[in-house]
Structure formats: C-alpha cells, structure tokens
Amino acid sequence: MGQTAVYAGSFDPITRGHVDIVRRGATMFDRIVIAVGQNPSKRYTFDLAERIRIIRSALSGIDNIEVDCFDGLLVDYCRTVGANVILRGLRAVTDFEFEFKIGLANMDMAPDIQTVFLLTEPQMLFVSSSLVREIASHGGDIQRYVPEEAARALQARYAKKS
Questions:
Q1: How confident is the model at residue 162, as a pLDDT?
Q2: Could you list the active site residues?
Q3: Could you tell me which of 21, 126, 127, 146 has the fewest CB atoms within 10 Å of its CB?
Q4: What is the H or E stretch that residue 33 is in?
C-alpha cells in the first residue's frame, strides 16, 4: 500500500486554491482523502452533503482521491483511513502561525503522522472560503475564485436570501 494523505477542511465552499492543493498533492501521494469537517457548533453555508457533492464535482478529474467526512481529532481520523500524512495549504504568514501550532500539536499526539505544507499559487493568496461567501452574498462575481459547481451553488443560495 502506498502513501495516503488527508487534506482536511470545512470547504464551505471549496475554492480554486483548495483544488490546486489537491491537484498538486495528487502527484505526490498515492491516495488523498479529502476529509470534510463537521463541527456541530459551527454554522455552515452548505450542509455536509452539499459540500461533499460540490467537492466531488470540483475534483472529478482526479483519480486518486476520495471524499469523506469526519469529526473529532484529525490524527485519529488519519489512523482510521491509514494515512501517514496530513496535507495543508499555506497562503500567508498568518496561515503559517496557525498551521504551525496545529502541526506541532498533531506531531505531539501522533509522531508517526507527518504534516506536509504546500504553498498556495500567488494569484490565490488572498482567496478564502469566507471571502468568497462575502463577495457572493453581495452579488459579486466569484467565478475566478471557486470551481463552477461551487459558484452555481453559492449564487443559488444567495439568490434565495435576497
């Protein structure tokens, strides 16, 4: 069995930056599990099933990926799917500080699971799911920030609210 990486997030919605990290990670690892987080205390724009559907659509051309959901500790989830790598994307220094702390905690809890960081493409440095939701909520053009399925879903969601 080859190397498995887990790429975890809320993906509410998945962005082109997320897709880029998965595409590049898919060339480095035999299998990538996109683990969609579900935190009961957090309010999401899209429910879990919608997020998974959008992610599967956005990543349909990548063969060595799976999309799943999880809650609890990421290192515990990694063990359940046989992953020895946590894949993370970094946009800026602020991401690094947060990810560094989480990575150290994960290393402490699970020394056998490594965290690998990929840098985001420069043109996507400022793009986040929350920024995309904000732009979409005001009727702005989000096509260049998210895959087509995510853009359609966001436009439909915010059209209902107006």
A1: 57
A2: 18, 42, 91, 129
A3: 126
A4: strand 31-37
The pLDDT of residue 35 is 98
The sheet carrying 31-37 orders its strands as: 65-70, 31-37, 4-9, 85-90, 114-119
Superfamily of domain 4-161 in CATH is: HUPs (3.40.50.620)
Question: What is the residue extent of each domain of the chain?
Answer: 4-161
What tens digit of pLDDT does each residue of 79-125 get? Answer: 999 999 999 999 887 788 899 999 999 999 999 999 999 999 988 88
* Residue 17 three-state SS: helix
Residue 86 contacts residue 6 (beta carbons within 8 Å)? yes
* Mean pLDDT, all residues of the chain: 94
Determine whether 135 is exposed, middle or buried from the number of CB atoms within 10 Å of its CB (0-12, 13-18, 19+).
middle
